[in-house]
Amino acid sequence: MNEDPRTSVPAGTPPSGKRPGAGLSIEIDSGSGFCFGVTTAIKKAEEELAAGSTLYCLGDIVHNGMECERLRQMGLITITHADMERLHNVKVLLRAHGEPPETYELARRNNIEIIDATCPVVLKLQKRIKDTPLNSPEGGRSQADSASSPERPGGVVVIFGKKGHAEVLGLVGQTQGRAIVIEKFDDVKTLDFSRDIYLYSQTTKSLDEFHRIIEYIAQHIAPGAVFRSFDTICRSVANRMPNISAFAAKHDLILFVCGRKSSNGKVLFGECQRVNPNTHLIEGPDEIDDAWLEGIETVGICGATSTPKWLMEQCRDAILSRQDHSKAAKT
Question: Which residue in the list 48, 67, 99, 167 is annotated as catalytic?
């Protein structure tokens, strides 16, 4: 039986990554790795490919190049929205980030079977945005007051998120493109506070920054205007912040393994770097610099919700292998 290279561990290596008699201790953060939504999307892709299906994925299934390459070798074909417009009678997987209504309409027109792997948290958020009571009595204004009076302009959906990110595009699509996207706290100052504001967040954004935005709007909303905020940040992601902070503080060196396109990864990496300045972002074992290990006793390896466990394990194994080669060269 062949050993799976993604999970192989050198003989005699305990789970901590420290071998008997070794001077370097390596720990992989047990809380890092794929979130539920990413795990589900990858599982659905693997099942379809194992059944022999030709499967297309609309955009990278996960913001991790090495995992995308692994699935590509299994047969997954990554496409763009422009590619999808030219396809007919095929299967297309929608990744965890979700899609706007227009994508589903395109699939209907082109007789495309959708394998929908949208994260349940994102689906719930899309529905909440779609059902936002703009220009309705439930929203605090009548249609006449909100839409026609210049003194009382209509309401607006505001999304705290990264412009152009797949999840955010899907959320904006629920408003027919009318939502306003703010990327950082300072952007909130540009809003029109005379309008009713309904605030949501991309599921992987910083909870602390979202709360600062809520506080600022609440302090500046015009008298008579409605402000409602909806905490739509995924707790399985948000809860990683305090956990990864504690993990980063435990070690001399932190290797944060993550694709550089991951929004969630940027937030978690920033937190690691804040707690432990000796933190480096790498996409794989080839980026580990031996100089980082000089004088180091403990190494912590962690990652984003888009980082596969097997990749963190490969980084650990690469360090241990280099240590073995170094010792052998000295004897």
Answer: 167
